[in-house]
Design goal:
The protein is mainly alpha-helical and 169 residues long. Among the domains are: 49 residues; 64 residues. 74% of the residues lie in helices and 0% in strands. It has 3 helices and no strands. The longest helix has 69 residues. This is Polyhydroxyalkanoate biosynthesis repressor PhaR.
Amino acid sequence: MTNNTSFDAFSLWKSMYDQTENTWRDVIEKTLEQPSFAEGLGQVQSQYLQMQGFVNGLTENYLKQMNMPTRDEIAQVASLVINVDTKVDDLTDELEAQLDGPLEAQRKEIDALKKSVTKLDKKLDTIITLLNTSIANQAGPVPSTSTPSPKTELPKTDVKKATPSTDTK
């Protein structure tokens, strides 16, 4: 009989991985717990920040020599543009308010004049009615003829607003 022993690469790889992972995990945990690791990490961070400041300074000097704006200068210009935009919006709102104010006053004045003209129109209608009844009472009874007499009938007048002529020929 033959033995069925085949080579399983995956199980070998998994076993090596587990052993390596356990070993490295223990080493890394011990390293992370040491105060010297934290100090070293702090030094690396400090050196990184110093290097970044140095590179930023070099970049800024290069941009100045090339007459290019730096990030801070662009941010400052953007801030100024935003401030100008805000002021323009405020001025636009104020200008609209000032322009709408007189128009509103004119509208109110026109409405008041319309009401006044309406009241005068009603008063004139009342006066005309009273005059018609007064004339009718003075003339006496109205004859029953089919043609009205000129004495009992008032001439109809059209009351129109007199407007000055603007013709300049």
